[in-house]
Batch of 3 targets.
Target 1
Amino acid sequence: MFSSIASLAILLTSSLLIPTRACAPPVNASDAFRIGQDGPADVATLGYSLNHFSLLVNDIDASMHFYNKILGMRHVFTFQATPEYSIHYLSFSQGGSNGTGYQTGEALLAQKSNTMGQLELIYRKNCNSSDHSAIPATTQYVNTFSHVGLIVPDIRSFQRRMEKFKVPILKKTGETSFDDEVRGARAFGFGSDIQAGRMTVMALTAIGFEKFAIVVDPDGNTVEVQPEQV
């Protein structure tokens, strides 16, 4: 995440104060970033891993197009539990045995339990014609979900791809503010407090936030995209 060891050193030794919400005391920059110091995990948890993340979606066709066709995740399987309720698994290819990086759906499914970072989309068709309400997204009001995180080898190429497919970009790489500060503040937990969100985004530049791009999926949830470290 840090562009260089020097930037990390500046963060850890600076005496500047990072602005925070008025309800909290100022944070000294030298105390802002702390590397974890906890010991080994309980031996009983060895082998645990984060296998997948799940999103409730309003339009399964739009969501599948975004995550599958635009972001490049592969369709592992769909399970139609009832006529109204379905789950859809997606995963990035994990290499492939033929050197092309391509894996069949069968190969992806066979590795499902040993693959990290998969996405599960859950869709329930609304059959009640009198109820047209949609599931609200993180950019619509603050909830416990913030964003999906993605790593890409070339973030400017990624950004051009998003522009090509007319995907809403909430923050472009190289910028230190959201194009839509209202939606950005909601997605990162600030609700209507745009000023607090603006100040915190500036503080996050200490850990390279200006290099990130943030885009919006069809439901209005955010995808934070970071360049891979080399």
Target 2
Amino acid sequence: MKKDCEVVRDLMPLVLDDVASDGSKHMVSAHVQTCAECAAYMNQLKADLPAGKKSELDSRAAFDAAAQTLRKQKRRRTLRNILLGALIVCILGLANLYCFDWLMNETRPIPTSEYGIQLSKLADGRLVASFDYHESMTPLYVKQQQVTETAAAGSHAEILYLYAEKHIVPQTASTPMQNTGFTLDTNWQTANAEIRQGTPEEYQVLWRQGDEDAAIPAASPEMEAYYAWEAVLTQLWAQHSESADGKAGFSGVNGERYSLAIHHADALAACVPEWQPRVTPQYLLLDDETIQWILAGVTEEVESNDP
């Protein structure tokens, strides 16, 4: 007989008399579940007990089994509640993170009184919509929306809405917003019945097709000069935006040309009367010699980006 069996069998009478400690009871119970000989010995001891004692023992065993079941159920409920609580905390944390990100990035249209739009026509037929941000210290974003509207007679008309948005959560810029413009393709007259400032909920008409009194003024020479130079920037980018090994970027003489061209564009924008007022530009206009050197790069073959 194993030593464990001897110890357990010595404890069995104490367990049956209900004078053993809880630890001893647990030890005996666990042992007889794995040892058939000791389980048989335990059953024999129970059989030798008086009838009243046996009934009391059976009742106590049933009570202990029920208590053990209740303890297991309580542990399971506790574990379930802990896991459920952790899941709820994670969900709330993710929801708060999403809401914070949404609030910080979501924008909404602003009233038309907080900005202005002026239309100008370039010599090549494109339309320029110049935005006056009224020196706003809050970042504003230019948006456009094409809407097909149906008249009472059933006819359809394409309406272009131009408007500005700002963040729901107020943000402050370090410098006032710089007035600027963006262009519409040359088919703007045939593609739109009206151009409006604002949104479908609140707007004012800037131009209406066929309205002789709504002639759009020609762009100023300074605006023409800016967009002519913008075409140079576009061509420089197309020619030199990839290096010999196929990686995007500028270096060497191409990078110098492009950087100077951007500086010149910034200086030209500050001269456009339709975009006034503007803060003092960071860069000055380039001299004619530098401009000719940049323009020469537009017509040259794509150069190696090696310095």
Target 3
Amino acid sequence: MKKIRYSIFSALIVFVALSFTFEFDSTNSIFKKLKNDFGYVPSGKVKLNDSELTVQAFYIAKTVVTNGEYKVFLDDLIATGQIEKYKLAKIDSTGWYTVPNNNFEKLGESYHLQTEYESYPVVNVTKEGATLYCEWYTAKMNEGIPKEEHLIFRLPQKAEWLRAAEGSEPNKIYTWNSLYLRNNQGKYLANFVSTPQSSITRNEAGDLEIVTNQVKYLSKINTMDVISPAKSYYPNEFDVYNMNGNVAELLADPNEVIGGSWYDPGFDIKNRSVKKYSGASATVGFRIVATAIN
């Protein structure tokens, strides 16, 4: 099998090999900031496109970006007069109205605005908005930090995302060590849609669609919730939450999201469940990774 060395995606959007070991160092101030919110993923191998890649070590956010975190970003753009960036990054709540066979007007009116949803994943954000968030977050995290310690925060490459999801077991189906969607106590391990097999079909683009309203949403914090809080269910070996289901996650790779969402059936929220990304959606959020600037 062909082997390729996969190096960290640099600030110049090229692949470079790091000349030092990238790992947690409690004496460095930037890593103190990372400790609570990011999990450390050591270098390891991932199988992708018939090749075995070596993914260099990186940090990955324990949760996807939340409504509360994204609001701080948007508010800062307004406060600093970056109106054009705000227009690109603002949330389009009408995405709730485009989910087939459902009526989510109430979520469209409240999901991004009410404090009760601050800890829930932000959705209906464009990839341009997610990229701007990463740039803003990079600047904020590096404030007051010596230049030699600076990190870049960005969307993950597919190989990095898979490395964080599969961990020590390449080609693992889900982030947990089981083929089942419930644990030994009968509790669900992820947020997905439960629906009869006969109600699921594929559209012309090859994406799954639910063709009846005979569905059961597993996230029922209250009567209209379909998304679970960003930090819910159980973390994986890197202390990362909800890589399967809840919201599909944007990748740095062109036009792809991964991991499935609350609107996908259990068999389509696997680690390697990849779909085409066509724009802001109520089923898509994003998670960030941190790497060194070479």
